[in-house]
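Why show two proteins at once? Because comparison is the fastest way to build intuition. When a single record is shown, students tend to memorize it. When two are placed side by side, the eye starts asking what differs. So, the first record is below.
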Amino acid sequence: MSERNELRDKKIPMNNGRSIPALGFGTLIPDLGDTLRATRTALEAGFRQFDSSERYRNEEAVGEAIQEVLREGKVRRDDLFIATKLWNNNHRPERVKPAFEASLKRLRLDYVDLYLMHTPFAFRPGDDQDPTDEHGKTIYDTGVTLAGTWGAMERLVDEGKCRAIGLSDVGLEHVEEINRSARIRPAVVQVEAHPYLPQWELLQACNEAGIVFLAFAVLGHSFEPKLLEDEVIKKVATAVGGTTAQVCIAWALQRGTAILTTSTNAEHIRASLDVSPLPESAMEAIKGITTRYRFNKVVETGVPGFIPRKADRKGAGG
């Protein structure tokens, strides 16, 4: 997989007339120093799509890495596709714009290319990102609707500092609900997807609606079952002369999705861009994998699955 080809620079058209680079770098990295270094490495390696969130608590580090590379003239802002997300405690319509502007300030950007609703679950409004009661149970906000939050996000597009809006950590029912009522339809739906969770039905629905399907956790996770140690994936990797990570990335890109991959290892970051198309036999073999597993349960409750809660910054991301 040493030769560069169309997968590295692939772009997918969005329904707002713009395009999103198919290969994206996720910035869910708990340590701020690691975030800055990894984001800068990804920029210099050739990544042009970057995903962030107010909930990751590291937008400042992401913004600093971007500004460093921009100042050095190594990339132009117009060449970058930057996304961030609205967290659950800011779903009330009157809280959406202040949350968005705070993210812009932390990222040190005049606009973002994509603003996502991080999950469809609304938490109690306030400064606490993970409000819980005396029993440790999440406190939800019943005074706001999905459509109400979406309407406030639509107004951000009207004001010009947000090029597109979308949904994250949702099921098919949420996508259909917004599509029925939205004035501005979602440009992107970001969800966990990999050979153990291919989400074919949601992918088909997105394709039919003209929505870009953006997959995270494309390499699985460090938890069991370990996707990168799957015998089918290993067999394909040996056959094509690549790593199991490169195989999973190529599979995702070839089936038409955009993807996010995350690493603090410079070698792994660069290797993620060094992907080549898989033969059809390999695509069919991976499609035939029967293991089914969801690593991140955030889609069920809105509670962070990979990212640390409260002040704990030692957990894994999500």
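Second record. Ask yourself what differs from the first in the token line.
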Amino acid sequence: MIGGFFAVLMRIHLIEPQGALVQPETYNKLFTLHGVIMIFFFLVPSIPTVLGNFLIPLMIGARDLAFPKLNLLSWYIYIVGGLFTLYSAIAGGVDTDGRSIRPTAARIQTRGDGCRVGVFINGFSSILTGLNFIVTIHKMRAPGLTWFRMPLFLWALYATSIIMTLGTPVLAISLFLLALEHLFTSNLSPALGGDPLLFQHLFWFYSHPTSNHDLAAMGVVSEIIACFARKANFRIQDRRIFKRGDRGAGFLVWGHHMFVTGNPLRG
């Protein structure tokens, strides 16, 4: 609701070409907080985490996830990370365009350390949830439920869990480097021999496969349409393999997000 409210304010502001509601720096803060909240505190947790918690045990014939207490811990971590992010919104906001891209982040007026800490903490929630899902699907399937008998939704969640487990630590490292940059001006500044593109590489290596969390939603659609149409999914084995391969390819093609950097990977 908070992230959506920020989006509504941005839409109202853009009713007129010159802006009708807020100052440019306030618009940047709305943009940043909308992006942070909707990606890290809604998109990533919503379908994979919520539906996964409810449906994985039902669909594999288990009583619960493999690590129920770890599951509860991930929820508490999520709440703590959210509180830090909301604190940054109340304490003045963050105006880094939503991604803290260098060198933009070097010119911001607000430090946004609380927001970065919140996203950093929330990352551990994603990692624990992904590990829990992976172990549950590997070890707790009912007898006879082989890999290629699993529903497409479980394949989608499994692939998404791999992204959450392997990609989120990269985001944590990039946020840590950005925090060092703001505290000590140490590692990303070209004036000190740093590489201003390093943060972008790390950010997009995580964010490109993560932006495809719609894979879990595609798994939902595949099950619902097949159920109510009373038709089996077409070429289901190929689609299972595609879901795994698509996630792997997502870690290899992040460079096309970096259009204005002159980087040869952008093609």
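One difference worth noting in the second protein: Residues 24-60 form the longest helix (37 residues).
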